[in-house]
Every structure is written in structure tokens, then in C-alpha cells.
Amino acid sequence: MTKPNILAQVSAAIVGAAASVAPSIVEVASHRSLASGFIWRKGLIVTADEALSEEGEILVELANGTQSQASVVGRDPSTDIALLRVDDADAPLLVTSQEPIQAGALVVVASAANSAPLVSFGGALCVGPAWRSARGGKIDARIELGLRLPRRAEGGLAVSPEGAVLGMVVRGPRQRTFVIPSSTIERVASLLSKHGEVPRGYLGLGLHQVAVTGGGQGAIVMSVDPNGPGVAGGVQQGDVIVRWNGDAMPTVSSLAMALDSQSIGQIVSLAIRRAGADFETTVTIATRPGG
């Protein structure tokens, strides 16, 4: 009896995984930039924001060879997600993985280049909890792949050997390859489709980090938006915020990152020092004007 050829089985699994998402994969050409993308919903395509030019027309080639001009629905540099509209783009709804990926698991990358599939594979180099990008976007899981991603493959799909979509592949610093998880794409693309942008939280306060007498860090209020939520909470210019929800005051930069779309509507308690006296107030985080 002939023993099963393990390499042939692995090869077949890779081919099958790429074929399962092939109808959704597209090529994206913008000014001096070539990348991949995928059909997220009928008429809507997700691609990597970093791979999309800021100017000029955008052409999308579908899996069937049809080329169409795309328009930008919205972009979120903080999560590297851009949403495009191509009215004739349609494909079966992608099946996303419901199981957390494990480090060492095999991952297939399905992209497109030169009107043909572009396929590679590698292991999940490391897997970790949610994190924030350098631009403050919340990424629901940290997944780094042990493969080098060609620029034209950026915006393609990371797929399990069973054909379930793990997320979108993007290029990170020092030529590292990351996966933007499907849950992050679903959240951000939904906001982009509704608002054209990802709303950000807003305190209406201009803050500058300072050292607090007695130790620790605080934030001095340099300016107050007269129509913002801070003034409604009684915060004044010159106040020093020393605690945030009972905890040490975060740095101004980390606070700016934390004011994402999920923070909108939250009520936070602020411990404030004013002219040597301490008191507490509450502020309801609003939506930043103009996103």
C-alpha cells in the first residue's frame, strides 16, 4: 500500500486555500503604486491604505479580468485600511476564521499581480493580544508572519489551510509582514462605509505633559474648546489633570491614541489640581469635529 505523500498533501492544501478566496482577490493600481485588495461586500473593496496613493485615479482589476475605476469611500491610516467603491465588484462572502491562530501555524497569502494569482505561504511567527499601531489604531490581535511580502501582495488575504480568512496582509517596519485581523477589518470598514472616516474621541482640551509636584506626571490644560466636552465638565485653562479614572494620568501621546471610536460616549473621571487645590469632575468623551 502506497504511503500518503505528505508534501503533496500540503501542496494541495495551499493551492486549495488560495483557490477558495481567488474570486475575491483584486489588483489595485494607483498613482505609482501597485497592490492587491479583496472584495469585502458587494461594490466595496478593502486594500492597504499605505499602498494607496494620495492622488490620481485608482484602477481595480477583478478576478475575471474586468478593469474598473474605483472611488475612495474612506481611509484609516491608523489601522492601514482603505475602502474603495467599484460598483460591479461582487464575490461570495468570505468565510472568516472563528478560531484564534496559534504561533507556528501555516498561513497562506493570496494576492494578485499581472492579472494572475500571487500565492505564498509561511508560518505565524508570533501571535499576541490586541495592540495599537504607531498611529494609534487598535489592532485586535498581533499576528506576524515569517515571510517577506512583495509590495504587490500588500492588501491581499491571509488564509488558513482550511480556507478561512484570517485578515489582510500588510508590510510593517524592517520588511516585517503583519496581518490586520478580520475583526479589525470588519469594525473599521463598517465605520468607513457609514461615515467615510473613523470617528475619534474628543475632550476639547489642548494638553501638555508636565511633572506633578510630589512625583508623577500630569497634563496641563493649555486650551479649552468653548463648545467641547471639557468645558462642560468645568475644566479650565491652566488646570493640571493628575489622575484619569482613578489611575495615574497617562502620557498625552498615549491618551491621544486611546481616544478612538470606541471611546466615544464614555464618561471619565478627572482628578484636577487648580491653584493648589484638588477636585474631581467627569467628562463625557464626544466625537471629534470633522472626524
UniProtKB/TrEMBL annotation:
GO BP terms: proteolysis
Record keywords: Signal included? Answer: no
Q: Which GO MF terms does the UniProt record name?
A: peptidase activity
Which Gene3D superfamilies does this chain map to? 2.30.42.10, 2.40.10.120
- UniProt keyword annotation of RNA-binding present: no
Return the similarity comment.
Belongs to the peptidase S1C family.
Q: Can you name this protein? A: Serine protease
The organism named in the record is: Dyella flagellata
Species lineage, top-down? Answer: Bacteria, Pseudomonadati, Pseudomonadota, Gammaproteobacteria, Lysobacterales
